[in-house]
Specification:
The protein is α+β, with helices and mostly antiparallel strands and 676 residues long. It folds into five domains: 121 residues, Four Helix Bundle (Hemerythrin (Met), subunit A), CATH 1.20.120.160; 146 residues, Histidine kinase CheA-like, P2 response regulator-binding domain (Alpha-Beta Plaits); 57 residues; 181 residues, Histidine kinase-like ATPase, C-terminal domain (Heat Shock Protein 90, 2-Layer Sandwich), CATH 3.30.565; 130 residues, OB fold (Dihydrolipoamide Acetyltransferase, E2P) (Beta Barrel), CATH 2.40.50. It starts with 6 loop residues before the first helix and ends with a helix. It has a six-stranded mixed beta sheet. Strands 8-10-11-13-12 form a five-stranded mixed beta sheet. The chain has a five-stranded mixed beta sheet with strand order 22-14-15-24-23. Helix 1 packs antiparallel against helix 4, helix 4 packs antiparallel against helix 5 and helix 12 runs antiparallel to helix 13. It is elongated and about 110 Å long. Strand 20 and strand 21 form a beta hairpin. It contains 23 helices and 24 strands.
Length: 676
């Protein structure tokens, strides 16, 4: 079998299953006595093991199998859940994630897992703190209450009155059995010939999907002898053991314990509207006409296909602008109506395509709980992570860029922000610090906030470090506002750490955070209150491909300025221009705003405008503003942001280009560079 065509699906599903394992393990650490959580983890791990073996990634399958053995011992109450045991399981999950990443990057999934396998083996062998003694009975002799509902009890009673007796068949498959669902089907085929299946543990659905370990239990009504049933079932290949015992209804009512090998929760199976269908649950294994099937309404689409679709639509947007311009120049009513309708339809289409590219931000957020847990243990701190707004959606391209900056900010909050339990006690705070991660929509932007209830930012310490590092002078320090001081911590090479540690102290991180966020059209602001905590607020665009701009004219050239950086446009008389530090400035709403002459910045040929006024576009970046001097305003328009290509990377104050309706190319300004 050529598995390459299934590789993308395998990688995606492996990541989903590992995320499920990770999330449930964190829940298990909070409620170690809830064995239903262990069942969820076990099922996800078992699915991953089966997929890995099928795809031929043996290291992945072997490590998952060892982890699965430990989880099985936990749910069978052979091993207790302890932080130390979970540390090893989390270590195994990290190794599994590393293998999947290697496969995704084109590797063979080879990874040295000997050390973590040895640790898992020690836990499994009962040589780990937290293991408890148990008797060495056969796996099929373990017991569990087999709960019957009112309908199933009535079916059994009716069968008994017509001469049937009830048998419980416990089947264990061999460890090397690959097609478990097929073996289950063959067992059901045999049992249908000798009686009627009443109930199964686990459920029929789980059996069909191979969501069980190696054993399952079936309750049937039959007239056949137990020895005959056992002999028939043992003829199926890859079956290791079969145990047939009578099922006593009266004993069941008295809570008699009966086998459930895989220890799953007992769940009612199927709808009971049709007694005949309910009493023969083997019908659920064999597809039949009339069986209700819930069809999935979601499909997996490769992101590359969405990129192609987006590129085609971007061409449509360009042609739409061209049609709008032609219809205005011709002044033809029917043409204008048609173009107007096309604009509405293409607007709806644009919304749908952009929504298709949107993914919940929890794809980024879900990596943080385990990171916070490990970091808190390494630093000897008690940290609680509160996450809200994880369902907030962002364009896939933005999601891909935002992960690393958030990692830096959360590590910074835990290392620099949250104090040690002893310090917090001295300040009258609870020993457990809180880091809050919040995302929400506002207009055409997404805001992400990282807050902590720690020590806050000490202005004096930041100023002293900045002066010592040569970032500012003593004279400048006295004039800085608190927010401007807070922004200094994002300067390159700046760090308030007194010593270099594995977590921080080298002066890298926050400057990278700032540059990365600004490179995708975002901004970051910092607020802090001493001994109460700090908040880092990130503003991000919803998408990076189609943006709203203000088109302006400078001599014969047209430029586009993104609307999200514009405060307003203004016309100022030349006589109102002032000078400060040998630069032209204006008084804009009681603030001194410097002027930037774009004709000079971009070296555009032509004589300066001889008008008695300046046309200005006021732009802002954080607390800083600038007035961009242009010749005239053309108007607002949605444009497609195109890259300038590898040959023009790093062009000053230009972030890309777009094609206008008349076929001309307009460069898109990066107002952040101009403000700097």
């Amino acid at each position: 079998m050529d598995v390459n065509e299934y590789l993308d699906i395998f990688i995606e599903e492996s990541k989903e299953n590992l995320q499920m394992v990770n999330d449930q393990l964190l829940r298990l650490e909070e409620t170690p006595n809830d064995l239903s959580i262990v069942g969820e983890v076990f099922r996800a791990a078992h699915t991953l093991k089966g997929m890995s073996a099928t795809m031929g990634f043996q290291d992945l399958a072997d490590l998952t199998h060892k982890m699965e053995n430990v989880l099985d011992a936990v749910r069978n109450e052979i091993i207790l859940v302890t932080p130390e045991m979970l540390d090893v399981v989390f270590e195994a999950v990290e190794a599994l994630e590393a293998i999947v990443v290697d496969i995704a990057e084109g590797g063979q999934g080879n990874h040295d897992v000997a050390e973590v396998v040895e640790k898992l083996g020690t836990i499994e062998a009962g040589e780990w703190a937290g293991s408890i003694q148990t008797n060495s009975e056969s796996e099929l002799d373990n017991a569990r209450i087999f709960t019957l509902d009112e309908f199933e009890t009535a079916v059994l009673q009716e069968a008994k009155e017509t001469g049937y007796h009830h048998q419980e068949i416990k089947v264990k498959l061999r460890e090397d059995c690959l097609l478990k669902a097929a073996r289950v089907f063959m067992v059901f085929e045999i049992l249908e010939q000798v009686g009627e299946v009443i109930k199964t543990i686990p459920t029929v659905e789980d059996l069909e999907n191979e969501q069980f370990d190696q054993a399952f239990t079936i309750l049937i009504a039959t007239k056949a002898a137990g020895e005959d049933i056992q002999a028939r079932v043992l003829k199926v290949s890859e079956i290791e053991e079969v145990l047939v015992v009578p099922f006593d209804m009266e004993a069941d009512h008295k809570n008699n314990r009966v086998s459930d090998v895989i220890k799953n929760e007992t769940i009612e199976t199927g709808d009971h509207e049709d007694p005949q269908e309910a009493s023969s649950l083997s019908n659920a294994v064999k597809p039949k006409a009339g069986r209700s099937v819930v069809s999935s309404k979601t499909i997996r689409v490769n992101i590359d296909r969405l990129d192609v679709l987006m590129n085609l639509f971007e061409e449509l947007v360009i042609d739409r602008g061209r049609l709008e311009q032609i219809s205005k120049s011709l002044e033809h009513n029917e043409l204008e109506e048609t173009v107007e309708r096309m604009s509405r339809i293409s607007g709806d289409l644009q919304s749908i395509i952009l929504n298709m590219r949107m993914v919940p931000i929890d794809q980024v957020f879900n990596r943080f709980p385990r990171m916070v847990r490990q970091l808190a243990r390494d630093l000897g701190k008690q940290i609680k992570l509160d996450v809200s707004g994880a369902d907030t959606e962002l364009d896939r391209t933005v999601i891909d860029e935002i992960g690393d900056p958030l990692v830096h900010l959360i590590r910074n909050a835990i290392d620099h922000g949250i104090e040690s339990p002893a310090e917090r006690n001295q300040k009258g705070k609870p020993p457990e610090g809180t880091v809050e991660l919040k995302a929400y929509h506002s207009g055409n932007h997404v805001f992400i906030e990282i807050s902590d209830d720690g020590a806050g930012i000490r202005r004096e310490k930041v100023v002293q470090k900045a002066i010592h590092s040569g970032i500012i002078t003593h004279a400048q320090a006295d004039k800085l506002t608190d927010k401007q001081v807070y922004e200094l911590i994002m300067a390159s090479g700046f760090s308030t750490a007194d010593a270099v540690s594995e977590v921080s102290g080298r002066g890298v991180g926050l400057d990278v955070v700032k540059s990365t966020i600004e490179s995708i059209g975002g901004t970051i602001e910092i607020d802090s209150v001493l001994d109460q905590g700090s908040t880092f607020s990130i503003q991000l665009p919803l998408t990076l491909s189609i943006i709203s701009v203000m088109l302006v004219q400078i001599q014969e050239e047209k430029y586009a300025i993104p609307l999200n950086s514009i405060i307003e446009t203004a016309i100022v008389k030349k006589e109102d221009i002032m000078h400060a530090h040998n630069k032209k400035v204006i008084d804009f709403r009681e603030k001194v705003v410097p002027l930037v002459f774009l004709q000079d910045i971009f070296d555009i040929p032509g004589p300066p405008e001889s008008n008695d006024y300046y046309s200005l576009v006021i732009v802002r970046k954080g607390e800083k503003m600038a007035g961009l001097v242009v010749d005239s305003f053309i108007g607002q328009q949605e444009v497609v942001l195109k890259s300038l290509g590898d040959y023009l990377t790093g062009t000053y104050a230009i972030s890309g280009a777009t094609i206008l309706g008349d076929g001309q190319v307009a460069l898109i300004m990066d107002s952040n560079d101009l403000i700097k």
